[in-house]
Amino acid sequence: MARKRKEKRSNSVYLFICIVVAICLAYEPLTSLTEQGVTGDTPEQQDRADSQQGTQERKPLSKMPEKSSGMELPASLKESRSELILERMGYTVSFNAKWNLPNWVAWELNRDKLVERESRNNKFLPDPDLQNGKAVTTDDYTNSGYDRGHMCPAGDNRWHWRAMQESFYMTNICPQDHNLNRGDWKELEEKCRTWAEQEGSIYIVCGPILYKKKHQSIGKEHRILVPEAFFKVVLSLNGDQPKAAGFIFKNSSGNRKLSAYINTVDEVERITGIDFFPRLPDDVEQKVEAEIGSFSGI
């Protein structure tokens, strides 16, 4: 009789321990569900909902864009060409101190960066990484007859206040024809944002083209060469078929369809002397740079 009571008591203790363990195991998932909210929204859906509430109040980023893989970065330039690499939050620039222009500006544009959290500030700043007295200022462009033309546009940097501010550093700026800056060049910038939304992510490199001739210059305190043209190359690695396209714009007034400016990346490399997308496998690089990719609208 005593043995049966002892066995019964042991069974009760064992059952009690099992119940306690089950409650502990269920607590963590239940807590996580409560913290996430009963809607089950993904972080991306929550980001979009936040952005729809307006941009009057600066909102913290719930998900910062990941650090670029560097796929957008061109190969190092020849030693005869001045090059200082400057890394920014939203782009990387190869600055040419002899020209007082960028050799190229490169960045990854993805859906996370299309969220408009910041307004355009329009405050052009000398680059703080250049020595005092050597940095181009906004005054060097005053009454020059040229716009302060962004290479990496402010519109691609509205996802963070610092990225927006750095897009106005003068190392990201070139003397650009007013009609081109506000017209066809701007249309391609907008088209790139459309492609980033469609593709999920694209890699962009752009910059000035200076042909072998005597160049016009501007500048009150610093001599800035005026480019004869501009280039832009775009790469998408979305899906099984990578694709790329290049564009060349004369630095002059014009109102043409995008197809009037399109080239292969190989052709842009030939004209600029820059090796684009060297981190691609050789066979992929050769294929995409020899063909004009089928981006929408071109």
What does this structure look like?
The structure is a single chain. The chain starts with a helix and ends in an 8-residue tail after the last helix. Strands 1-2-3-6-9-10-11 form a seven-stranded antiparallel sheet, with helices on both faces. A two-stranded antiparallel sheet has the order 4-5. The protein has a two-stranded antiparallel ribbon with strand order 7-8. The chain has 298 residues and is an alpha+beta fold. Strand 2 and strand 3 (101-110) form a beta hairpin. It has two domains: 2-40; 68-290, 3-Layer(aba) Sandwich (Extracellular Endonuclease, Chain A). It contains seven helices and eleven strands. 30% of the residues lie in helices and 19% in strands.
Short summary:
It contains seven helices and eleven strands. With 298 residues, it is of the alpha+beta class. The chain is globular.
* Terminal-residue CA separation: 91 Å
CATH topology description of the largest domain: Extracellular Endonuclease, Chain A
Question: How many beta-strand elements?
Answer: 11
Helix share of residues? 25-40%
- Class computed from helices, strands and strand pairing: alpha+beta
Q: What is the element string, with H for helices and E for strands? A: HHEEEEHEHHEEEEEEHH
Low-confidence stretches: 1-8, 23-67
In quaternary terms, these chains amount to single chain
Mean pLDDT: 84
**Structural Rg:** 27 Å
Number of helices, where a helix is a run of at least 4 consecutive DSSP H or I residues: 7
CATH architecture of the largest domain: 3-Layer(aba) Sandwich
CATH class of the largest domain: Alpha Beta
Largest sheet: 7 strands, antiparallel
| Strand order of the biggest β-sheet | 1-2-3-6-9-10-11
State the fourth-level CATH superfamily of the largest domain.
Answer: Extracellular Endonuclease, subunit A
